[in-house]
Automatic annotation (TrEMBL):
SUPFAM superfamilies in the record: lambda repressor-like DNA-binding domains
Domain spans labelled HTH cro/C1-type: 39-86
InterPro entries, per database record: Cro/C1-type_HTH, Lambda_DNA-bd_dom_sf, MLTR_LBD
Species the sequence originates in: Nonomuraea mesophila
Designated name of the protein: Transcriptional regulator
């Protein structure tokens, strides 16, 4: 099972982040001698972070070190990590502050029902759905069902937006920028994977996706880390044609780990298409149930 091995993952993550940088990215003078490996040298990272070269080497070799928050902060600065990558680094090292770890706990069944499901329905006519950190689809409204598919017809284990994007044949052409959408989703799942190392359902999902899709396996190996909160998706509805939606992802304070996803038409033509989608699908109706994944 693709469970988190923090020591190994920390080693590989630090190495891949080092290899993506160049001296000019961190205001180091370029050397005339050719570089035998991509990116910064370990000596350069050690200098930027104020630690020894031996320490960086042992970290990248996975030799059981547990860096302090101060060292992690120095490494994050040296490697120019984003906020999401920085949180990922802290999670792998087991050094995330307690209040932030609580905010990323695995939701319970009680979290996944009730007022938030009613809020999803109340957001009509905007397409909306409630997901958890694994992208399990907990509840949805009629507009989201009309736009994508009626999730209520699927077995509960398939009600997962990443699984659907990668494996459901009916959604194969739904995303015009499919690889970009998958890459963003994988970067988000990787952040959740480190934040929830004991979530066997999440590990099983990642195993299934990486073993069944060469594309997912290749993108997972890039170790991108990014929690997606806002953006655009270019879609193609099978009956009404192309449209672009702007999405917002909101994190309810009362349900840590859950996300409220809301779509809006990005332009007048997309609004026309979205209106037609909803009008043409009278059978779509608000439905939803808590996903009860094993583990």
């Amino acid at each position: 099972m693709n469970t988190v091995n923090p020591t190994r993952e920390l080693a590989v993550f630090l190495r891949t982040r080092r290899e993506r940088l160049h001296p000019g990215d961190v205001a180091l003078p370029a050397r005339r001698a050719p570089r035998r490996t991509p990116g910064l040298r370990r000596e350069e990272v050690a200098e930027l972070a104020g630690v020894s070269v031996d320490y960086v080497t042992r970290l990248e070799q996975g030799r059981g070190l547990r860096p302090s928050p101060e060292v992690l902060e120095a490494l994050a600065g040296a490697l120019r990590l984003s906020e999401d990558e920085r949180a990922y680094l802290y999670d792998l090292a087991g050094q995330r502050p307690a209040r932030q770890r609580t905010a990323r706990r695995t939701p319970t069944a009680d979290d996944e029902a009730g007022p938030l499901a009613r809020l999803v329905a109340d957001l009509s006519p905007l397409p909306a759905m409630l997901v958890n950190h694994r992208f399990d689809i907990i509840s949805w409204n009629a507009e989201m069902a009309a736009l994508m598919l009626d999730f209520g017809t699927l077995p509960p284990e398939q009600r997962n937006s990443m699984w659907l994007c990668v494996r459901h044949p009916g959604l194969r052409g739904f995303y015009r920028d499919r690889e970009h959408i998958i890459r963003e989703g994988i970067a988000d799942l990787r952040a959740a994977w480190a934040a929830h190392p004991d979530d066997t359902a999440l590990s099983s999902l990642i195993d299934e996706l990486t073993s069944s899709s060469e594309e997912v396996a290749r993108l997972w190996a890039l170790r991108d880390v990014k929690v997606n909160a806002r953006g655009h998706k270019r879609l193609v509805h099978d009956a009404e044609g192309p449209l672009t939606v702007a999405y917002e992802v909101l994190a309810p304070l009362q349900a840590p780990g859950q996300r409220l996803v809301i779509y809006r038409a990005a332009d007048p033509e997309s609004q026309r298409v979205l209106d037609a989608v909803v009008r043409a699908s009278p059978a779509a109706r608000p439905r939803g149930s808590a996903v009860s994944a094993p583990g």
